[in-house]
Amino acid sequence: MIDTRRKPERVPRTKQKSRIEPPYNVLLHNDWDNSMTRVVLVLKRTIPGMTLAKATKLMYEAHSHGQAVVKSCHRELAEMYEERLQAEGLTASIDKA
Question: Is residue 38 part of a domain?
Answer without folding.
Answer: yes
